[in-house]
Recover the amino acids of this structure.
């Protein structure tokens, strides 16, 4: 995937240093102020990060980002910028204005308007504050544990979460939840539509894809299907318990958006 040297979104908020080790009081205060202007409660921020405070000079040496940290932030920024371009255009086509979300990078744990979450939760979108949350260590899990390799696979995960933001802005989540389906069935409908919306992003991203990138994305979609995850954990596959859809459903949903290349492809 060709992303290096391209425009990065200004909507990436890097909070990884705040959870990566001990921090100084000055950094804590600055972080609380920044959190307030992002729409969060600074008291919550202070409660979450105060245990990491160390007295003395706030040199920042314990927070220095590694080259990999910086590379991943840039990668996320480019992918987020591409989603902004795609959805700005798509919203204009239906006479709507797209408001991009913030994407929060964190380490180990984070507090959102939807509550406290750990890295084990995986990337998620919080509709209450309309922000995406991502611990970039998930990229390693995606590749090493789930066998979904390649940068395009990681980019698909981001595009899927942005799909949830698109659903929130257009009221599609509420629409799905009002169909009289069970909670799990509604969740599957919502998740598959987000996969379709990720396919729309990919249709416009193809000019930056290398050979095999689309296959890597579909492999990722398959790897995180509910049936595959249940099999991997040694459990019986129980379709009624699905919350995201089977591997085949997720791949089919992504393909639909990819082939349609427009928002309307995912509205049904």
């Amino acid at each position: 995937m060709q992303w290096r040297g391209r425009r990065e979104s200004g909507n990436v908020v890097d909070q990884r240093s705040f959870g990566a080790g001990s921090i100084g009081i000055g950094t804590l205060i600055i972080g609380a102020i920044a959190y307030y202007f992002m729409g969060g409660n600074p008291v919550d921020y202070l409660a979450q990060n105060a245990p990491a405070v160390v007295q003395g000079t706030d040199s920042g040496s314990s927070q220095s980002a590694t080259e990999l940290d910086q590379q991943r932030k840039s990668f996320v920024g480019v992918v987020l910028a591409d989603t902004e371009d795609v959805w700005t255009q798509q919203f204009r086509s239906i006479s709507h204005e797209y408001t991009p979300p913030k994407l929060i990078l964190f380490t180990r744990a984070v507090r959102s308007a939807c509550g406290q979450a750990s890295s084990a939760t995986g990337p998620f979108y919080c509709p209450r504050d309309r922000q995406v949350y991502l611990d970039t260590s998930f990229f390693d899990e995606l590749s090493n544990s789930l066998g979904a390799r390649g940068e395009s696979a990681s980019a698909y995960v981001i595009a899927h979460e942005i799909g949830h933001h698109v659903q929130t802005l257009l009221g599609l989540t509420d629409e799905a939840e009002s169909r009289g389906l069970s909670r799990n069935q509604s969740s599957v409908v919502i998740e598959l539509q987000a996969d379709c919306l990720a396919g729309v992003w990919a249709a416009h991203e193809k000019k930056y894809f290398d050979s095999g990138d689309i296959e890597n994305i579909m492999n990722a979609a398959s790897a995180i299907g509910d049936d595959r995850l249940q099999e991997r954990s040694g459990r019986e596959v129980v379709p009624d318990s699905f919350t995201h859809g089977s591997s085949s459903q997720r791949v089919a949903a992504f393909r639909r958006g990819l082939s349609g290349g427009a928002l309307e492809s995912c509205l049904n």
Summary: The chain has two domains: 24-59, 66-266. Residues 18-23, 51-63 have pLDDT under 50 and may be disordered. Residues 66-266 form one domain.
